[in-house]
Structures are given as C-alpha cells and as structure tokens.
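Hey everyone, long-time lurker, first post.

I ran two proteins through the pipeline my lab uses and got sequence/structure pairs for each. Pasting them in order. The first:
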Amino acid sequence: MQKTFDNLRELPALVATVNETMAALKVGRAKLYELLAAGELESYLQGSSRRITWRSIAGYLERRLKEEEARRQNGASARGRRAQEGFSR
C-alpha cells in the first residue's frame, strides 16, 4: 500500500510563528521573547524564522492557570485567616 500525503492539510499545525504565538497569547513581541529566553516556550529556528511548538504554548497556559488557581486559593485562605483573627480580637 502506497502512502499518500493528500491529507496533510487536515493535520493540525505543530508549530506557530512568532506572530501567531503573540496573537494566541495576547502578548507583545518583547514579552514573547522574554518567555522564550526564560525557557517557558520551546522553539527553534527554521532558516531565519523562529517557530514555537503549540505543545509548549499549551503547556505554558496550563502552568499559568495552575499558578493562578494556587494564588487564588492562597489569597482566599489568607483572607479567611485575617477575618478569623479580626473576630478573635
């Protein structure tokens, strides 16, 4: 059986350009390059063009959401402790 590449257009993109990533994350170019330099996003050069993996974009979003959830939980528990301290005074 011969493999064909007729359905390649149906495959999801594995990588994004800098501009696509900026649009997806709603960040500017400077912030995007900060994330790249910090290792928050995986990328490589294709010729002179930077490509960022969608997998790393999704991973970054998951990490940020977990951080936000933890921040909210810590904030809520701190508010609860402060409220209890106010009642005990």
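...and the second, right after it:
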Amino acid sequence: MRLNSYTIFNLNTRLDKPPALFSIQVGAFKNEPALHSALAQLKLKAPNIIHTKTVVNIEPVVANKVTLYRLKLGSYKNKAAAQSDCKTLIQQQVACFVGNYTQKI
C-alpha cells in the first residue's frame, strides 16, 4: 500500500527522493485503520504547520509476533532539519521523534 502525498511543513528541508536519511515518527499502530485515523487527526491537530507536500511513509515491523505500522513523516538528508520539524510538531502537542528513513510501503 502506498499512501498519497499529504501536506506538512518545512519545504526547504524535505526531499522528494533519495538520499533521505531521516524521518519523523509520529506513531506506531496495530492496524491500518488506526494509522489512517491518526493521520487524519494529525492534520486536524496541527493545521498551522501543514502547508507543503511531503512524504508520508508506513513502515511495518514485527515486535513480539505482532505487526505494527510505524507512521513516519518527511524525508530528510540532515538530522538537524528533522529535529527542527519534530520540535514544531511537539509545540502542537504531537508526540514525535527523529529516526532513520526507511522506504517500506
């Protein structure tokens, strides 16, 4: 499954293609409907930072025999830019952290 591009923040630091190294993880969910609901809530919760197109990536991982779907935003070549955008999300009460960019789905 490949999500459509959603809109988010910081046009100057995002990348549309490799070499992306970092992304911002905003959640991990047990199923895809929960993930899509969380993404919709994110767009409502932080509308003032959502203004340019960016990559929305879902990374499935198996933990304790359960598949989780990590919701990651952005594709950054530099960690400081990703951290800056994550801080902006935190100011909007959106929990996040910077992790490695992984193109899975």
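Reply from user beta_strand_b:
Welcome! Quick read of the second one: Confidence is low (pLDDT under 50) at residues 1-8, 10-15. Residues 32-45 form the longest helix (14 residues).
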